[in-house]
Design goal:
Keywords: Cell membrane, Lipoprotein, Membrane, Palmitate, Signal. This is Extracellular solute-binding protein. InterPro entries: Bact_solute-bd_prot1, SBP. The protein is an alpha+beta fold. The chain folds into two domains: 182 residues, D-Maltodextrin-Binding Protein, domain 2; 209 residues, D-Maltodextrin-Binding Protein, domain 2, CATH 3.40.190.10. The strands form five sheets. It has a four-stranded mixed sheet, covered by helices on one side. Strands 5, 6, 9 and 16 form a four-stranded antiparallel sheet that branches. The chain is globular and about 65 Å long. The longest helix is centred in the C-terminal third of the chain and has 31 residues. 40% of the residues lie in helices and 15% in strands. The relative contact order is 0.19.
Length: 466
Amino acid sequence: MPVLTSKRITYTLAAAALCSSMLTSCASHQTTDKIPSPSPSQKEENTGEQKQLTVLTNRIDLVENGVFQKYADKFEAKHPGAHVEFEGLTNYASDIIVRLSTRSLGDVLLLPNNLPNEDLINYFEPLNDSLFEHTRFADFKSYRGERYGIATGASTDGIVYNKTAFLRAGITKVPATLEEFYAACAKLKRVGIVPIYLNYGAQWPMSSWGENLVSYMTGNANYLNQMTASDQPFTKENPWGQTIAIVKTLINKGYVEKDLFTNNWELSKGEVAKGNAGMYFLGNWVINQVIAAGGSSEDLGFFPFPYDNTPMRYAPLSPDWFLGVSKFSENKELAEAWANFFVKESGYVDDSGFLPVDTTKTSQLPQIRQFLTFDPTFVERQPPSDDFLNISAKAQMAFWSGDYIQEWIAAPDLKTSFQNYNVRWAEARKLVLGLEASNQKQSNEHSANNAAAAESDKKKQQQSRH
């Protein structure tokens, strides 16, 4: 995939299939549904043999409310003789890593965000090129010419807000700067409304305030990957310090939920829907979830997050989770058919409030139309490099999980906490990039050159004496 750079995009709604990494909600549960096989021969379909798929998902809500059942029924009508079972993981980002070690991956699953592309071959089956026609982010999860994951949706991040809550607080204009944003929070707090729900206790939403925001607020799509060139990527003066400072300000001023340590993710959607909480800072995918929790589409708005006081505003374009087929599946053809159906035909993209990854389709969300009226400059997300992922793993930093963001927010001295992480990062760089060995080699070569030069000078001196 070519290097993606920030770019100005004049959007017609037909071109609004964007993207952002943001992760969707999770909870643990299981449900069973029926599904059929990809493109089996007529002979296979008439055998009467039942084939079962196990699909791992983070969308517990759609399993529990029957939406996934609807998809399975639709799929089964096209491919008789198959059965699909959905298994939800409570905290998918961390739970799936444990599953990798035991190979308990089911048949179809979301690819772990922290897994280097070079390791995909160990756990996933290459997907047919035909799945990627007119598809965004086709090469995001590829290695040596093979593609292992197809994006399930696309999104951009911003402030999802309850319009009625804003009116109750006397906010008549969407904040365009960070100072205006803080002022809006103060107004919401004065009338007894939680200004913004962080979902600190759920952990994973905190990535919105970390690598997600950091990766686009400078307009540099390659910001995270360029961290591999530095031994001290975390400072109070750079974007990492700026974004953590914003969250700390929100917490210190009482602009967030009171119970920070409980996982209230599902509860929070109802709070925003009712107007008891005013805002979220998440991807557009959360809009339909708030509606499902009792909100109305007309009452929800969406605008770019004003992370500073400049007039320039960047917003991300990122893929959501990627769907792949387990290398250990016994029904790989059927599993690939489900992946193709799920992304392109099931209705999941619209049901989840995503922007389509199919470039021939458009978003129907009115909130996206509103978002585009603010004319942000979009920064298209770049795949994390293997060096970035390997250094992160060695430094024991689980990006896109939110856990280290929690630690930094709670740190009494952010500078010291950053320094500790910089030490870990620098050590990991040496190990992953071979800097220690390289430096030692250069040192040895330098010593050898010096010794040779000294010997040459000695000979010249001896010759001059004679």
